[in-house]
Design goal:
nine-stranded antiparallel beta sheet, 2 helices
C-alpha cells in the first residue's frame, strides 16, 4: 500500500497537553488547535517527502527509509533521525518523541506521537 496522497486532519486527541509538554507557547497552541492541517506524502520506493501545511506554517521533511536524515520537528528544531518502515507503518524517534504513522485501509492515516505518558493522536483522511 502506498502512502502517496493528500490527507486532511479529521480529529486529534491530547493536542494541548502534548504541545505544552514539547514547549510550544500557549498562544501558538490556541491558534493551532482548530486548524485542519493538510499532509501531502510523496512515496517513491524508499524515498519520502512529507509536507504538512497548518495555516500559514509549512513543514517539509524528506527522508529515505533506513538512512539517517535531518528532520524538522513540529517546534522547528532540526534533528538527525532514521525513519524505519514496518509494513504500513513509518516509525521514528525524535528527541524522546516516539512517532508512528500508520496507513489504515488505504484512506486514513493515523499518526501517534508519544512523549512520556502523553499520547497525541492525529487521524487524517485521504482527500
Amino acid at each position: 500500500m502506498s502512502f502517496s496522497g493528500k490527507y486532511q486532519l479529521e480529529s486529534q486527541e491530547n493536542f494541548e497537553p502534548f504541545m505544552k509538554a514539547i514547549g510550544l507557547p500557549d498562544e501558538l497552541i490556541q491558534k493551532g488547535k482548530d486548524i485542519k492541517s493538510i499532509s501531502e506524502i510523496e512515496e517513491n520506493g524508499n524515498n519520502f517527502k512529507v509536507t504538512v501545511t497548518t495555516g500559514s506554517k509549512v513543514l517539509v521533511n524528506s527522508f529515505t527509509i533506513g538512512q539517517e536524515a535531518e528532520l524538522e520537528t513540529i517546534i522547528g528544531e532540526k534533528v538527525k533521525a532514521v525513519v524505519e518502515r514496518e509494513g504500513n507503518k513509518l516509525k521514528v524517534s525524535l528527541k524522546g518523541i516516539e512517532s508512528v504513522t500508520e496507513l489504515v485501509d488505504g484512506n486514513m492515516i493515523v499518526n501517534t506521537m508519544t512523549l512520556g505518558g502523553i499520547v497525541y493522536k492525529r487521524t487524517s483522511k485521504r482527500m
